[in-house]
Each structure stands twice: as C-alpha cells, then as structure tokens.
Write a structure and sequence with these properties.
Radius of gyration: 25 Å
Largest sheet: 2 strands, antiparallel
Strand content: under 5%
Helix content: 55-70%
Number of strands: 2
Order of helices and strands: HHHHHHEEHHHHH
Structural class: mainly alpha
Strand order of the largest sheet: 1-2
Length: about 350
C-alpha cells in the first residue's frame, strides 16, 4: 500500500529524533565515564551539581535518551506498517511537542520582561541585555516551530482519511472496545492519558533527589518531601491509567486536583507566600550547590511566578475542556439492541 507523503515525512522526522537521542546517549555515557574516572574541570564559581553526582546524572540522562530513542524507533516502524497503535503513539509525541513547545515559546518571549538585570560575576561584565533578548527571541522562534509542527501532526493524524488509512490494517475487533464503559476512547483522551502516564514515572525521580517540597506555602523536607513526591507520582500514573480505561473517577480527579493550581497562585501572591517561596528556593540552592554560597535565583520574582502559574493554568484549562467535551465517553454505553426473534422452522424441515 502506498504511504501518503505526510506519513513518510513523519517517519523520517521520527528517525531524526531517534538518531539525535542515540547521539545524546553516547555522549552522555562518554562524559559520565570521564567524570567517573578522571573527574570534570572545576568551575570558578559554585557548582550547580555536586561532583560526586555528575556521573549518576549523565548515566541517568543516557538511559532517558535511550528510552526516547526506542519509543521513536518503534513508532517509526509502526508508521511504516500503518499500524493503528503507531498513530496513537505519534499523537502523544505530537501532543508533547505542541504543549511543551508552546510553553517554552511563551516563556522565551516573556523572559526579557520577567528576568531582572543580571549582575556581574567573577570579574566579568554583566551580559548585554540586547544580546539576551536576541537569544531568547531565537529560542522562542525555535520552540514556536516545534509547537507548530506538533500541532500540524495532531491535525493531520486526526483527519478522517488518515484514521481510515490506519484502520485498514487494524485487526478486526469483535465486541465492544476494551474500556470500562464499552465506548470508543476519543483521541484527545488517549493523548491526555499518556501524558499523565509518562509524567508519573518522571515525577518519581524526585523521590531520589534531596529537594524539599513547596505546597501551599508550607515547606516539607526529608522523608515528608519524598513521600509527597511519591504520592504525586503514583496519583498521576493512576489518573493516566484511569483516563486510558475511561473511568469516570479519573476524570473527576483531574477536575478536583485542578483547584490546587489557583490556590497555589493565591498563596504566592501573599507576602507570606513569597517569603516562604524564597526560603524554599534557598533550600534547593543549598542542595544543588553543596553548601556553597549560591547566586540569587533571577526568576524567583512575583512576575515570573504569576506568569508560570497562569501558563500552567491555561494548559490545564485546555485539558479540562477536552475532558468535559468528551464526558459522554466516560458513561456506560447503552446495551446492544436485542437480536430479532428466530423464525420458527416449518414442520418437517430441518437445518
């Protein structure tokens, strides 16, 4: 079967993504081995990561890059074979590209207005504001292209003709879909569920890092912080699985937890909340810089906090709108119509 040009180009794009991730994996392994055996050159100022943690960081990043490469390669193979699951996988990738590309684009364009003037460090003059604006503008333009590409993939692979193309090679399923409601899962719900499923294990990584937790102005440290991160990771993964199975309680959980975002914003706008957040950032800097005196966080100001929180609320609003729009999919499907009565056989006739 002849593949449409957009499908072929999407497969090529996935191949480039996979090659980039494999190259990054090799580089991270090499740098990790060098840091493990010879160490890295010492920086003149405070180090962002303790030297003892550098090999672990590079090896962990290499594993993450390898996992992404495997995901892209499997999706590429599925696209070439026109497998239905590959279309869903690509939709998840495109959704991540559109979401994070759009957020990064808006952040890059807003940074020159949110970031205060950087001080001079180590005898060097402060960065030129004009050059910083150009750098942020170039980064914003790049992320804008990533977001536009992700949006284009979402649109194309949701077209009726594209869905029909991938359904031609899909196995024939007898009976209702394997969901808790017996209904077909909408594509947007599938993408959202996989975003939650991926975010859960990523959040679990914070359990192994010595970072405190900031929750409604309160700072939790040590075991309490690890338990909060573990709870968030498990809850996020459970919601993703529930959405994938079209469970109504998972959809309701997203709406209930969405209330936490504006509460967090309201706390940050109070003098007590800003003071607590400054203490929280100082605690993180103390963990990152291994007890050395760290430079102040240039993004921990009220404007930046409000901007990022509102941005997160806008992204969450899109998710809530999609879940509300497809709320019918989370209700049990009506029973199939009864079979017509079997006609009685005439006397003397047999089947």
């Amino acid at each position: 079967m002849k593949r449409p040009v957009p499908v072929v180009l999407s497969a090529i794009l996935l191949g480039l993504f996979a090659a980039f991730q494999l190259l990054g994996m090799v580089l991270m392994v090499v740098v990790g081995l060098v840091a493990l055996h010879k160490g890295l050159p010492a920086s003149p100022g405070p180090q962002l990561i303790p030297p003892s943690m550098m090999p672990v960081l590079f090896f962990a990043m290499s594993v993450f890059s390898a996992a992404l490469a495997v995901w892209f390669i499997l999706t590429l193979i599925g696209l070439v074979r026109l497998r239905s699951w590959a279309r869903y996988s690509l939709l998840v990738i495109a959704g991540l590209m559109a979401a994070f590309g759009g957020i990064s684009m808006l952040t890059s364009f807003a940074m020159p207005f949110l970031m205060p003037t950087l001080p001079a460090t180590a005898g060097q003059p402060p960065p030129d504001p004009g050059q910083l604006r150009m750098i942020f503008f170039a980064a914003g333009a790049f992320y804008g292209l990533v977001a536009a590409l992700g949006a284009a993939l979402l649109v194309y692979f949701n077209l009726a003709k594209t869905r029909a193309l991938f359904l031609q090679s899909a196995p024939v399923v007898v009976g209702p879909p394997k969901t808790s409601t017996g209904r077909v899962r909408p594509t947007s719900v599938t993408v959202i569920s996989w975003m939650y499923l991926i975010s859960g294990p990523l959040c679990l990584l914070y359990v192994f890092l010595p970072f405190p937790t900031f929750l409604f102005g309160f700072i939790l440290r040590g075991l309490a912080a690890h338990l909060v991160y573990a709870l968030i990771a498990v809850l996020t993964f459970a919601i993703g699985y529930g959405l994938y199975r079209l469970r109504e309680e998972a959809r309701i959980a997203v709406f209930v937890l969405s209330v936490l975002c504006p509460i967090q914003l309201a706390v940050l706008l109070t003098p007590w909340g800003r003071g607590q957040f400054t203490t929280y950032m100082d605690s993180i800097n103390g963990s990152l810089y291994n007890g050395q005196v760290a430079a102040p966080n240039v993004f921990a100001n009220t404007g930046a906090l409000v901007f990022f929180t509102v941005l997160a609320m806008a992204f969450l609003g899109v998710v809530l709108w999609l879940l509300h729009r497809h709320r019918e999919a989370f209700t049990p499907a009506p029973p199939p119509p009864p079979m017509p009565p079997r006609p009685e056989l005439a006397e003397g006739l047999t089947l």
